[in-house]
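Key result, reporting period 2: structure in, sequence out.
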């Protein structure tokens, strides 16, 4: 098992201007990865010792965030999806189902991936209708 990052390592890794503090960050009990208090991570999700979840990101259900992967922005990772390697999922992207994102991939914009294995890719579409559909889905979840 890899040694867990400390707050100094986290600062260097994310190139943060303001060093992270224990008041804003905690280790996820399932994997010991770093989670900012503004993010939502399910207890059933795995966040590995070098993985990071920050901003308003949501890591739900039985997902796995492994290696040096980062989930940030307002991204959602759900289902049994895996984000690994040096991959980043951010902005308003959704990675769900059994999708696997790895290598040096970056998934952003309002991309939605629900299956398949994607390595060393950049997926960052911006479609206004996708933002509308996402907002509608979030409203439905809140009302439900």
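The corresponding designed sequence is given below.
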């Amino acid at each position: 098992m890899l040694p867990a990052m400390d707050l100094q390592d986290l600062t260097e890794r994310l190139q943060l201007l303001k060093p992270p503090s224990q008041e804003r960050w905690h280790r996820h009990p399932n994997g010991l990865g770093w989670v900012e208090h503004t993010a939502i991570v399910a207890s059933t999700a795995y966040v590995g010792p070098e993985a990071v979840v920050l901003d308003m990101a949501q890591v739900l259900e039985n997902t796995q965030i492994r290696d040096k992967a980062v989930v940030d922005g307002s991204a959602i990772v759900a289902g049994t999806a895996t984000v690994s390697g040096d991959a980043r999922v951010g902005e308003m992207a959704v990675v769900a189902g059994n999708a696997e994102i790895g290598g040096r991939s970056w998934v952003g914009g309002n991309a939605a991936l629900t299956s398949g294995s994607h390595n060393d890719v950049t997926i960052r579409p911006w479609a206004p209708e996708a933002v509308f559909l996402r907002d509608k889905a979030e409203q439905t979840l809140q009302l439900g």
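The radius of gyration is 15 Å. The chain has a mean pLDDT of 84. This case is discussed further under Risks and Mitigation.
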